[in-house]
Amino acid sequence: MKLFNFICQYSSYRKREYDVKDKPFDFHSATFNIKVLTSETNGHYTVLDVIHPPNIGPASHMHPNGSETFYIIEGDYEFILDGKVIKGKAGDVIFIPKGIPHRFTVGQKGGHALVISPPELEFYFFKVSELLGKGEVSYETESNIGEQYGQVFIDYTKHWK
After folding, report:
1. Is residue 46 part of a domain?
2. CA-based radius of gyration for the chain
3. Which of 32-41, 79-88, 135-144 is predicted least confidently?
4. How many domains in the chain?
């Protein structure tokens, strides 16, 4: 009976996981669409399609569980990667090694990027999005969810503002 209950719980979790794929959602005014789930890559990474409005970006953070890669489809981005400024435009690829502090700001016309992120990070974005839909989310709450899924904030200034 215990095995049956475990299989039912796992099956329910997997169904919920797949319910978030290919369904755009709002995250701090950016539109996220999960294209590839971590579970589909044997736990190695996730792929996100993200449309960013102008002049926003996350606070400085790092990912202890893996690297992150941005393929810029449209727009201009300014990354601060380990203290160095890197400018990216359509067609550029920006690679962020595991554990390196970084942030970015989207240019004045907004942007569109395909992002290969560390494993499980899709659930940080989705869970925070659900809470944002219900109202304000405190730094503490977002930071705790981030740490659970591999998004560790270093500084909370200018977070998606």
Report:
1. yes
2. 16
3. 135-144
4. 1
Measured CA to CA, the distance from residue 69 to residue 46 in angstroms comes to 11
For residue 128, pLDDT over 90 is answered with yes
Q: DSSP assignment of the chain, as one string? A: -HHHHHHHHHHHHHHHHHHTBT--EEETTEEEEEEE-GGGGTTS-EEEEEEEPTT--PPSEE-TT--EEEEEEEEEEEEEETTEEEEEETT-EEEE-TT--EEEEEEEEEEEEEEEE-TTHHHHHHHHHHHHTTS---HHHHHHHHHHHT-EES--TTTT-
Q: CATH no. for residue 89?
A: 2.60.120.10
Whether 15 is covered by a domain: the verdict is no
Whether residue 144 lies inside any domain: the answer is yes
What Cα–Cα distance (Å) separates residue 109 from each residue in 42, 69, 91, 118? 36, 21, 16, 27
CA dist., res. 103 & res. 40, Å (int): 27
Residue-number span of the structural domain to which 96 is assigned: 21-153
